[in-house]
Design a protein that fits this description.
alpha/beta, TIM Barrel, 14 helices, binds zinc ion
């Protein structure tokens, strides 16, 4: 009495893909009570086709860009994409609020339970306060000219303080990217107390490494276009972008590296040597990579190095949907040798741990309340394909 019982063709518990003999039991509030064998489950078991999984965690999104769906053409490369964002992100507040609400609903319906969301302003704050999703807010700071470091830091701190009022333990102040934050600004962010979880866009385009290695390449065009005279202050480090900025993010105990499309074995080696005490997490946003650069990150390299992997959707500006299943399908299409249970771990428990929400989310462990997602329309072999669908059932 007072329990719900769920059975699928498969039950993914957060770690292992169990077969259809396992029945998940929750109380009426959705709190996990047990996983039992079908022979012990008794009456009243709800049957689903496909997989039952804990709710998905989307570790990288920009909810505030939701109104930009379909505005920017595909495969332009990162620099034209950034310029399009800067030029086209303006809209009326009503349009922006409506798009934010729609995107928040769409994520809920596609099985997402928690989101790591980048915020450059407070436009998403009202929706997040009433959302059914849990949010970790990454308040993003940028400014490549050292002269504006203090001013940009103070502006972002105001946004940070606003989010802190409602999300005291799930708001961080984070740098945007190696090419958009000055050393001085990195220093101000790093000195902020009580800011243990950080995130940075990393190696999303080959030009990012080129710029730091030699000072050449398309980033010069970006600064010219936005009127930043980098000759005044910028010297190429002779290292990759990641290796250049890693020492400037020293205080956070956890660091999400987002995209990692052009991260190399040498970068990973340096990372392990430089930050042995820092937990580095590789956040893959494959559909956005295909949308912007038509490239994919070296996922096999990350697996060979035992890297900690999570998934993100990025925003509607660079993705046709905000769906973690859709990200999983793309990974499965291009890397069919990766076991489904591994990709499901990235989508659930790894993401929950990354955002510090694994006390309640990410797996079907007793006393958690992770939500339940049904992934249906599998292939005959029990794999996901482009026909597969995700539906939130709890
Ligand atoms: Zn992003």
């Amino acid at each position: 009495m007072g329990y719900n019982k769920y059975r699928g063709d498969y039950l993914f518990d957060g770690k292992t893909l169990l077969d259809g003999n396992s029945v998940l039991i929750t109380n009426k509030e959705g709190v996990i009570v047990d996983i039992v064998s079908i022979t012990d489950a008794g009456e009243g078991v709800q049957i689903y086709e496909g997989i039952l999984s804990p709710g998905f965690i989307n570790c990288h999104c920009h909810l505030e860009l939701s109104h930009m769906k379909g505005l920017i053409p595909e495969n332009t490369g990162l620099i034209p994409f950034i310029l399009s964002i800067l030029q086209q992100r303006h809209a009326t507040e009503d349009e922006i609020f409506a798009a934010i609400q729609h995107a928040d609903d769409a994520m809920f319906n596609s099985g997402i339970v928690a989101v790591g969301d980048i915020s450059n302003n407070t436009l998403t704050f009202p929706q997040k306060q009433k959302s059914k999703l849990q949010y970790h807010n990454f308040i993003e700071v940028s400014g490549f000219s050292p002269a504006i470091a203090q001013m940009r830091f103070e502006t972002s701190m105001e946004i940070y303080k606003t989010f802190k009022t409602h999300f005291p333990n799930s708001t961080s102040l984070v740098p945007h990217a190696p090419y958009s934050v000055s050393k001085e600004l990195f220093g101000l962010i790093d000195n902020l107390e009580n800011n243990p979880l950080s995130s940075i866009h990393n190696q999303e385009t080959p030009d990012e490494n080129v710029f730091f290695l030699s000072g050449e390449g398309k980033f010069n065009l970006l600064y010219e276009t936005i009127g930043v005279d980098i000759k005044q202050f910028f010297q190429p480090s002779g290292n990759t972008s990641l290796q250049t900025v890693l020492p400037l993010i020293s205080k956070p105990t956890k660091l999400l590296l987002v995209h990692d499309t052009f991260t190399s074995q040498q970068d990973i080696d340096v990372l392990k040597a430089l930050s042995p005490d820092q937990q580095v997490i590789f956040c893959l946003c494959v559909n956005a990579n295909l949308y912007i650069e038509n490239m994919l990150p070296p996922i096999d390299l990350f697996l060979q190095n035992d890297c900690n992997i999570v998934l993100g959707t990025d925003s509607f500006a660079s993705n046709h949907q905000l769906s973690i299943l859709s990200e999983m399908i793309t990974i499965n299409q291009h890397f069919p040798h990766i076991p489904l249970a591994t990709i499901l771990q990235w989508a659930t428990i790894n993401g929950a741990k990354a955002l510090g929400m694994d006390d309640s989310l990410g797996s079907f462990e007793v006393s958690k309340k992770p939500g339940i997602v049904n992934i249906s329309k599998l292939t005959k072999e029990g794999k996901i394909s482009s026909s597969s669908k995700a539906k939130r059932i709890l």
